[in-house]
Amino acid sequence: MAAQSYDRMSGVIWYDGKLVPWNEANVHVLTHGLHYASAVFEGERAYGGEIFKCTEHSERLKRSANILDFEIPYSVAEIDAAKKLVVEKNGRKDAYVRPIAWRGSEMMGVSAQSNTIHLAIASWEWPSYFDPEQRLKGIRLDLADYRRPDPKTAPCLAKAAGLYMICTISKHAAERKGYADAMMLDWQGRVAECTGANIFFIKDGKIHTPIADCFLAGITRATAIELAKKRGFEVIERRIMPDELNDFSECFITGSAAEVTAVAEIANWKFTPGKITKQLMDDYTAAVQPKGKAAAA
Q: Do 91 and 107 fall into the same domain?
């Protein structure tokens, strides 16, 4: 049976300041955000009714919009409150949360300085991004043909819709070959990230991760680094070349959708999910639990 289309799901969506029925949260076909990718978004998860790192995501949404030269007409506090309201009204305590802001349809052309800025927030049930069993064994990644662009050529530090075009192409290509996802290099041929997640490697008990200057330094990435340091692991942010991958014993990826997921293979490079990866997976699971539940556990 085919999955239910996202435009036919039940519930409500917060749209420009009010809750509307799911099937009424529509935009016009001549919306600037559709034609010119002038849209920014966030991917968040609620656990037990509480959105993890809610305010940090709202702050990044506002920053992303500023990078794309528009201002979301709601404060961080208002966005936080709207997200919490959507989760509550949709009745799914464990949910994926998607705020998105975009330029409207008043002007159609590259310039759109007078267009209305819209904001919508949806939430729905979305289980693990990858197969739960495979997350423990380690997923398989392809090596993408497309690379993350030079920061001088694209607004790389915004979570902007247009930056994900090459991610979709790369993930499709990987899935057609039987992989779960793909790792992307940057414009200089250095290891960057996956199509929607940051990447980490482990060697001799130390954790290595690429410097995030041409892609998003994810909120989950920062959480994983914080958890690792609390455990006493050294975390080294540096340039990593593909020919170094033979030297690493473990690999994992992080993201709001992926959470913390072990990697067993990247193209011809092999890894064995081990104690450090498993520890960080467990620590992250504990960290995202609502405070009362975590304290009782």
A: yes
